[in-house]
Amino acid sequence: MKRPARVRALFALVVIAVSVYIAVTVPVRLGLDLRGGTQIVLETRSSPTTEADGEATDRTLEVLRGRVDALGVAEPTIVRSGENRIIVELPGVQDPRKAADVLGRTAQLSVHPVLGAATESDKPKDKGERILADESGERLRLGAARLTGQDVEGAEAQFDQQSGAGWHVTVDFEDDKGWAELTGGAACHPAGDPQRRIAIVLDDKVISSPQVDPSVSCNVGITGGSTQITGSFSSDEARELALLVEGGALPVPVETVEQRTVGPTLGAEAIEASAWAAVIGTALTAVFILVVYRLLGFLATLALACYGLISYAALAALGATLTLPGLAGFVLAIGMAVDANVLVFERAREEYGRRSRPSSRSALTAGFKGAFSAIADSNVTTLIAAVLLFLLASGPVKGFGVTLGIGVLASVISALVVTRVLAEFAVARRWVHRRPRITGLASIGRVRAYLTRRDPQLMRRPRRWLAVSALVLVVAGAGIAVRGLNFGVEFTGGRLIEYSTGTSVDPDRARAALADAGFPQAVVQSSGDNRLTVRTEELSNAEAVEVADAVAEIGGGAEKVRDELIGPSLGDELRRNALIALGLALGAQLLYLAFRFRWMFGTAAVATLAHDVVILTGVFAWLGKPIDGVFLAALLTVIGYSVNDSVVVFDRVRELWAKDRKAPLAQSTNRAILQTVPRTVNTGIGVVFILAALAVLGGDSLTDFALALLIGMLVGTYSSVLTASPLAIELSAYGGDGGGGRGRGRGRGHDGSGPAQSGAGQRAGRAGATSQGK
Questions:
Q1: What is the dihedral of CA 141, 146, 151, 153, to 10 degrees?
Q2: How many CA atoms lie within 13 A of 298 on its CB side?
Q3: What is the pLDDT of residue 11?
Q4: How far apart are CA 385 and CA 336, in angstroms?
Q5: Keyword Hydrolase on this protein (predicted)?
Q6: What whole-number distance in Å separates Cα of residue 159 and Cα of residue 732?
Q7: Which helix (H) or strand (E) holds 365?
Q8: What's the DSSP call for residue 74?
């Protein structure tokens, strides 16, 4: 074994060993959409006295952390996102009302002396004075705050068993001097006088205003720095009040801009469905590779298993959260790993057929060398989409970007390192060398054999293909113009709640029931067996309860399995970021392709991407499917796949053109297409297995995702061959970069003949294409 082979083998062994260790010792953290729970996104707002900058957000996060810990939720997560957003994840919490109320309250605690009673017409006389109603509704004039929440050392809810007074909250102050002065001043007034009271205010509401006990001396006050807040508290109310008081005041107000709740049933179903999709899709893909590539197909299947191990270990090592779209991206990246292997094997088949004394070992080495540039370019363009998803998206879509990026890197290691080590070891065996057909390289395959016999001239009239693409583009665009886009709540703001009902409910009946309950604008859809999805404008948690009661009444009970609340400001931001991500994806890929290829190839590829985006969006518009974050993830994945196919074709064009600079671009392009079609067919079949498994077995939550990818893959495969290539030919003619294609006559085909060639020249051109395809 030569030194490079030993280095690759050692590297593969180390990567696999480390991956096994991480996979066994470090668990992957599941997102709330897989394990159930509530996610709340809070946004800090500036107050008259404090700006909501990064420092204020950090202080707010620490206060919220104390409140979350006091809620008693197992394994909560609270992190800062950006300058002024805080993401709180509460696993197992299915009713977000209490959590949202506790987290969202500013909890501005202050203690005031009472200056006397007040009437409705009274107004504060001095700076710092306030007029508020006490617990019984009596209006009191309060002096400036003497103590605030920052002076609180601790608070505890207690039950008074001796007196039977019920629950109260004991508050301890850090400095007992201030409390003694405040109570000592109140004790100087006679019993029954309002000025003998102390007012404890929480968020502009008097929660307790007790009188100082007669035993307290004037100007002496209550020492020890402790007091009790009494009232008709239940145990939950007393604990919540103690939590707010002890947790302290938020430095700045916060607003709930996003709230998601997923029931554990939906999470379990999603995990099971995705797991089955992964198993069945991977099994079908493995069988297909075994049939087509035999021994090398078996080794590639082992490499795919290593790919799955490496991807899982990378997710665990990075501490990434595996979400539902991320799980789908994990399954989907299996198809990308297949593509890299197919590229290598098809190039090896070509090299085997070209050699007068073929050898599986030398053909395989040439296959890896020849396929490297196409694999590198196609994976870099997909990584561009993944990076943009991570940088610009949020929530589950960002998780998809992380998973997709990890999957791309793992697929490269799997194909170029693990597969190569296994394949080179296998073909070097003497018994394999004596039986070359067992490797799968000695046969050119049925697709290549058919194309060699037929030798179709696809690029004879490229404008016909462009006309077909333009027609499809117009039909899809008409869907956007006529039907409009059904933006999900992620892009519009509002609330989407999915219920599992006891009996099947007709959406029209549910719509009427919700209208009677005061929600006439609610959009109701059936989302599966005994499933209803209700989409409305932004609802409060109390209004959401009314919606649930209305659905439960007509559905024989209703269990909430999904709840998404998106504020209008966040919806606008997500929609804007989606457009920015799409524009940057196209622009970044144009720059990369223009750098790696000629300008005409880059322009043709990016124009084809825009073509695919419009068609996929138009199809979803005609079908009335939602345009949401999951669709955005699918759309950017389609962009990666489409440019992947275009890069493979253009890479072959570049290679053929470098060998024969005098050949017309149309002729080189036609030969490149015929040589890469076997790879396109075999990769497409492998990806279809994965996506079909997702669509059939993935459940309602993954159906639209898989549908978008299936449509996008079909459109992208067609456009990369029959839109990007003809467009590049046309651009080369008008841009003066057509090589041997310059000077073609008007109205003549692009088959490589040129205006001066005879029929014999055309036949010679075809013969050359045929010999290259063998």
A1: -70
A2: 7
A3: 92
A4: 14
A5: no
A6: 85
A7: helix 360-392
A8: S
